[in-house]
Amino acid sequence: MELVDKIKDLMSFPPVASEHGKSMDDFIVYVHVLMAVLFVGWFAYFLYALFRFRHVKNPKASYTGAQTSFSTYAEVAVAVAEVILLVSLAIPLWATVVDSDKFPTEKDKPLVIKVTAQQFAWNARYPGKDGAFGKQDIKFVAPDNKFGVDKNDPNTKDDFESAINLMHVPSDRKVIIHLSSLDVIHCFKVVPLRITQDAIPGLMIPMHFKAVKEGKYMITCAQLCGNGHATMRGNITVLSQSDYDKWEADIAAKAKDTATSFE
């Protein structure tokens, strides 16, 4: 809606770079409009009450007060508006973004990435051309193996990691991120993509999105995670599919050469 877009401009919303981002922004606008109506309405009623029941007109206090149904009707109207927001917007939007039943399936050919947070950086691992990750186990976790990868698993051979704090994803393709942490609770947040998810030690938590606008966007940690929390920043670059394929081939080749040199 044009009016909603104008309100977003007035509120200085950050740019949207994901498919579901507009729906989230629209919902935020609707909530703010409801809050504005409530603020104006109840403040006007407050001023009316001050004037209507001022001391000059009511020298003796009345313990029964004004007998009116206005406030009851107003409260019912507010409750109805909130139910409409919840049922028609909030719950469906939550289901689209969070519900596991709404996650991309194999037919969508999503890019799957495993991201592990640590104090104070982001590590990303990609499955390579076969699209399958090597097995992981906590017993394999070490300073040089942050993902706990079983290096004897054949599927591990073409897996590769991007540079620390740097991620790349293709535009107009669904992406699933499996998020975990090495130490404390972190929170993976990319404002333009409208995604936020806690990274919890011992858990692998999925999240998904589809970027629709190419560019470089900042990854921040939205959980206070230690003295270096403010420095825990990274970048996620959204590329065209062809440019992403070139990047993937280049970084995978470099990773293979590095692995070969240590054999």
Quick take:
It is built from four helices and ten strands, in the order H-H-H-E-E-E-E-E-E-E-E-E-E-H. The protein is α+β, with helices and mostly antiparallel strands. It is 34% helix and 22% strand.
Treating each run of at least 4 consecutive H or I residues as one helix, how many helices?
4
The fold-level CATH name of the largest domain is Immunoglobulin-like
Q: State mean pLDDT (0 to 100 scale).
A: 87
Overall number of structural domains: 2
Report the helical percentage: 25-40%
The poorly predicted ranges are 259-263
Q: Terminal Cα separation, in Å? A: 59 Å
CATH structural architecture of the largest domain? Sandwich
Fraction of residues in β-strands: 15-25%
Query: How does the overall form come out from the CA principal axes?
Result: elongated
Largest sheet: 5 strands, mixed
Structural class: alpha+beta
CATH class of the largest domain: Mainly Beta
Radius of gyration: 26 Å
How many beta strands in the DSSP annotation? 10
CATH superfamily of the largest domain: Cupredoxins -  blue copper proteins
Strand order of the largest sheet: 3-2-1-5-8
SSE pattern = HHHEEEEEEEEEEH
